[in-house]
Amino acid sequence: xxxxxxxxxxxxxxxxxxxxxxxxxxxxxxxxxxxxxxxxxxxxxxxxxxxxxxxxxxxxxxxxxxxxxxxxxxxxxxxxxxxxxxxxxxxxxxxxxxxxxxxxxxxxxxxxxxxxxxxxxxxxxxxxxxxxxxxxxxxxxxxxxxxxxxxxxxxxxxxxxxxxxxxxxxxxxxxxxxxxxxxxxxxxxxxxxxxxxxxxxxxxxxxxxxxxxxxxxxxxxxxxxxxxxxxxxxxxxxxxxxxxxxxxxxxxxxxxxxxxxxxxxxxxxxxxxxxxxxxxxxxxxxxxxxxxxxxxxxxxxx
Length: 302
Prior knowledge:
Layout: H1 3-9, H2 15-28, E1 33-37, E2 41-42, H3 48-53, E3 59-60, E4 63-73, H4 94-101, E5 111-113, E6 121-125, H5 126-130, H6 143-152, E7 157-168, H7 177-198, H8 224-241, H9 245-253, H10 265-284, H11 287-301
Parallel strand pairs: 4-7
Antiparallel strand pairs: 1-6, 2-7, 3-4, 4-6, 5-7
């Protein structure tokens, strides 16, 4: 594998690439489990680490638990989003769908099947690294739920641990509404195409939009393109009513996303997956690199 190809795989140009880098170092060091936490979160539970690794590699619904997602507690003290969405989001009300999904947290069961995952509160077993399962660098946002699909379609169980909670303190977003909708549209269109292509492969455990309902499954079926078109049209009218002409044009231009060709996304991911598997194995076998990482880890503890 040449240096250019290595640089292409080992870069930090997106959310997926950063998360892959986060699991690469502990994989090189030979750890059995990896815990992913973001920098806008606070761990309040003294037993968090014990809870994080609990039930990992056990059997759930006939499959080995290879990954777990935890729960985000919002600043107001619950996992649920407060407030109503804007009227122009009527056809793209992701907050409502997410709140409906979050109700499984109140099921009374600690371990439940996960239709969603938060990348900032996630636990992975080294089994996934050995199989080359990784975050897909071709999806710009929503890499955590896309990763959940990558895990499940390989025949592993990805569960939600309702006891694994962290306080989420996200910074205020300054992105315009048209950009937020465009980013959501792009991620859902990508995942929709990925699920459709996976359906035609001989997989151990195919994943469908129905398996991911209410969120994100509601945005991965045949209604997605209609939702994107109507939402951007309504958003454009909202901008026009406030004389924000440029923003209105940006909203309308997002509709063209529904015509973008995403075909071949599964092939692209599996190609990256195989290269990722090779390079992680090669780096794990490098004794000098492992020694350097261990020395840095020891010096930090001191």
